[in-house]
């Protein structure tokens, strides 16, 4: 009977204190107080005869400890499976069961895995404050953890940096994890997916496709259908950015066929929005407008709704539907005022000036407000797009400024 995952000394101390017993009362006739103290506090070795006598005096059976160890192992495995499957409802049920065992886990060698899995769970649920508490706990014990668990901690930190929007730091962290090759095999698909996700956000679409296919293969081996859809969605975005529209369309077609089969409602708004972007790039404007409206209809959060409304409004602007665009812009500016969508707030303020025929004011705002923000926050693609507009504006009136902005765009690889 293996009890190697349980810290018997710490558990004996816990049950002794629970019964208000002194060390002398517990060990009388069994061992010395000094020996018991070392066993309780430092998990010093004790022979099985001594352990059995101590447990018997406390009224605890060895079988009950074994059962507790097995239960902890099972519940942690179930939590991990739910988290990696992206099954939020089941993950929450598993998390609640694991929390009920927290006190027992404290007396086991599962303690670091417990905090790692709970850290990853809170990131899945977007519980950022709780995730940061777990991150701090792990930081304090990381030096005592096995190498594989240290690597798992670095991997989960990489996922945390994504939520914080630091895609470069996340990518650097995850590429180191990949190079070290210590991550448990069950996490490999997630590793490839997050690397692909970071490359997509950093506008390296070719690398995003390469790692996206690695993730797709790994998720397929484990029949992780929801994550397969997430990866196909990511590939659709990357192929769109690369201008390989046939491949992008193929990915979206897979998603359309399978999305309703696995109840992927939380994916619908973003998927419709990005499919509309593909249709727009392909010149199918009426179809693009329809999917932007579908995206708004299926939005589950205010941010999703506003993201689609912004995309739809930019389409209206390109189609010359000025009045409808201005009506939407008023709503966008009002709704993003108190949100984290600072970029959209600035971009549509610029569009509002343009549509109200205040071009000089628009360009002044672009130069002094919008472009500095985009440069500071590393929105390179957006910066290049609007810097080109400013360069063209200055081409007839201020050649030095026009050349300055053309040069800025060239430096960023436009």
TrEMBL record:
Family annotation (CDD domains): HTH_XRE
Family annotation (InterPro entries): Cro/C1-type_HTH, Lambda_DNA-bd_dom_sf, TPR-like_helical_dom_sf
Coiled coil start-end: none
HTH cro/C1-type domain: residues covered: 12-65
Organism superkingdom: Bacteria
Transmembrane parts of this sequence: none
Protein name: Transcriptional regulator with XRE-family HTH domain
Species this chain originates from: Siminovitchia thermophila
């Amino acid at each position: 009977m293996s009890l190697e995952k349980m810290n018997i000394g710490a558990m004996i101390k816990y049950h002794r204190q629970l019964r208000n017993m002194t060390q002398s009362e517990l060990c009388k006739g069994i061992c010395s107080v000094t020996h018991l103290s070392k066993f309780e506090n430092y998990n010093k070795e004790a022979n099985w005869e001594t352990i059995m006598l101590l447990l018997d005096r406390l009224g605890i059976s060895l079988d009950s400890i074994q059962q507790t160890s097995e239960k902890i192992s099972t519940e942690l495995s179930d939590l991990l499976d739910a988290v990696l499957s992206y099954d939020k409802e089941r993950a929450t049920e598993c998390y609640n069961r694991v929390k009920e065992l927290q006190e027992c886990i404290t007396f086991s060698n599962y303690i670091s895995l417990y905090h790692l899995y709970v850290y990853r769970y809170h990131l899945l649920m977007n519980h950022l404050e709780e995730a940061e508490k777990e991150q701090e706990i792990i930081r304090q014990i990381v030096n005592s953890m096995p190498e594989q668990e240290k690597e798992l901690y670095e991997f989960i930190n990489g996922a945390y940096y994504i939520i914080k929007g630091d895609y470069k730091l996340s990518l650097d962290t995850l590429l180191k994890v990949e190079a070290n090759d210590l991550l448990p095999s069950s996490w490999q698909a997630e590793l490839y997916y997050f690397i692909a996700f970071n490359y997509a956000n950093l506008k390296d679409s070719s690398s995003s496709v390469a790692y996206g296919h690695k993730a797709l293969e790994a998720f397929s081996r484990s029949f992780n259908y929801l994550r397969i859809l997430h990866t196909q969605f990511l590939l659709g975005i990357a192929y769109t950015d690369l201008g390989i529209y046939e491949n992008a369309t193929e990915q979206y077609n897979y998603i359309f066929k399978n999305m309703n089969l696995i109840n992927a409602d939380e994916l619908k708004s973003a998927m419709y929005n990005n499919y509309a972007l593909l249709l727009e790039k392909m010149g199918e404007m009426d179809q693009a407008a329809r999917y932007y409206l579908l995206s708004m209809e299926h939005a589950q959060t205010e941010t999703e709704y506003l993201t689609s409304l912004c995309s739809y409004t930019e389409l209206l602007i390109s189609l010359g539907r000025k009045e409808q665009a201005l009506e939407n812009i008023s709503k966008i500016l009002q709704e993003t005022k108190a949100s984290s969508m600072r970029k959209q707030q600035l971009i549509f303020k610029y569009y509002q000036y343009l549509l109200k025929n205040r071009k000089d004011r628009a360009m002044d705002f672009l130069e002094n407000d919008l472009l500095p923000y985009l440069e500071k926050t590393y929105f390179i693609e957006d910066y290049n797009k609007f810097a080109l507009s400013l360069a063209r504006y200055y081409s007839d009136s201020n050649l030095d400024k026009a050349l300055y902005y053309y040069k800025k765009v060239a430096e960023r690889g436009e």
